[in-house]
Amino acid sequence: MKIAIYSGSIPSTTFIEALIKGIATSHEVVLFGKLHRLPEYNSGRIRVYPVYSNRFKNFVFTFWRTVLLLVKYPKRFFVLRQQIKLRSGIFHKYNWWSRYVAVLLYLPDVFHLQWAKDLENWFFLKERLGVKFVVSLRGAHINYSPLVDPELETTYKRYFPEVDAFHAVSKAIGKVSQNYGASARKIRVINSLIPESTLKLFRLPKPFGNNTIHMVSVGRHHWKKGYAMALNACKLLKEQGVLFRYDIIADGKVPEALLFQRRQLGLEDEVVFMEGMQQTKLFEALQDYDVLLLPSLEEGIANVVLEAMALGVPVISTDCGGMREVVVPNETGWLVGVLDSQALKDAVLDFKNASLETRQDIAKQAFNLVKTNNNATVFLDEFDDFYNIA
């Protein structure tokens, strides 16, 4: 079976790259999208047909692919022409032509769209060419984007009933998709993969150093990550005399609102904004912290929480999206209400007052949950079934 894993970007996220490599053990995988850097794949079953960043190179490849498509598959060429007529502006038409032509030339049996927001742009592959069409549901694109974008809501309600299958990262997201017409029988919840190499890094929590709690959050600077709420909780901790340091690790410029809030709350000595880092270094850094905070307003199931559990770092998370499916109070972590700074503060105090044995027991149970539910064997078996069902 030839499966296209489409995210629009090559390479893609850690999760999607793991999916690509895993699926290639039993299927042919084709990749389309804009090339930023050619990944190293140790499999002859992975083929990359990108849109090149270099304009001249991209023009040459687009022209050559167009000629091949016209000669080998004239009916597909006609479909492409009809699709491009829906676009306006010559440059816009060309950009979409260069994206589409490779897909139609190397047409897959299954087109796995990684971001639901792109559904309208690609659904013609199913309607006009009979390609099986499956969609991944992870977080923002289903949880809040259609709430603020009426056109996206209309798109989902138009296409979701016709999608062949949905992959959801949590039960909660699967249920939300049904509001837009997704059939429950077409939804398969498949947990994110945590590689064996990450599981091997597990180590038990250590005693606090100098009675100071070292806390960390990891994730982009976006309102949904809830950093403003976390800073409010830090203010409450400081007022109670708790010794702590809170690092927020994220790529990009720190928003002015967070910098202003940190200063207004008098937290410049306790809260540090740090630049993102490569994954290996991040994992090493995470194990130096006592606890990971996930103060998010919205998530599917945050990969950083699963990774922290695999590494042995205890987790305090808000009860958003599907987080309660992995963070079970008193078993695998601490769970608090969304936007509840007081509850987050109380959870940090509960964590601080817990014995080392308790914190280590919770870390062990969290690790066992991830090792059981997020290992490569389960992940690949479930995706294999998923594609066969579609």
Automatic annotation (TrEMBL):
Glycosyl transferase family domain segment(s): 211-367
Top-level taxonomic group: Bacteria
Protein name (record): Glycosyl transferase family 1 domain-containing protein
